[in-house]
Write a structure and sequence with these properties.
Blueprint lengths: L5 E5 L2 E8 L4 H11 L4 E12 L1 H16 L3 E5 L3 H9 L10
Parallel strand pairs: 2-3, 3-4
Antiparallel strand pairs: 1-2
Helix pairs in contact: 1-2
């Protein structure tokens, strides 16, 4: 079983790890407010162990927050489940994915 979700700054990236599900999304949102301080955010999602539709909503919220403060955000290393969810909800054009 995966541990609690976390966001760590590693090599200029913000690594998201653990589950990104409805029961965990508020914890990640709270963490992001503390660590998403750069003007060029690179969010590495390779450590996501589980995702549901709230993960997509969280990514959209992170994009909205970054835009509102004039920062750029890019999502990298998406897991297959995240790619599937983004396709299912047809929001690929709204999310900057590298």
């Amino acid at each position: 079983m995966a541990g609690p979700p976390a966001i760590e700054a590693i090599d200029g990236r913000l690594l998201v790890s653990g589950p990104v599900t409805l029961s965990q999304v508020q914890m990640l949102l709270d963490q992001s407010r503390l660590v998403f301080t750069a003007t060029d955010l690179r969010v590495d999602l390779s450590g996501v162990s589980e995702a549901d539709s709230s993960a997509v909503a969280l990514m959209l919220e992170w994009k909205r927050q970054a835009s509102s403060r004039g920062a750029s955000i890019r999502f990298e290393n998406l897991t297959e489940s995240l790619k599937t969810l983004i396709g299912l909800y047809d929001v690929g054009d709204l999310l900057p994915v590298a």
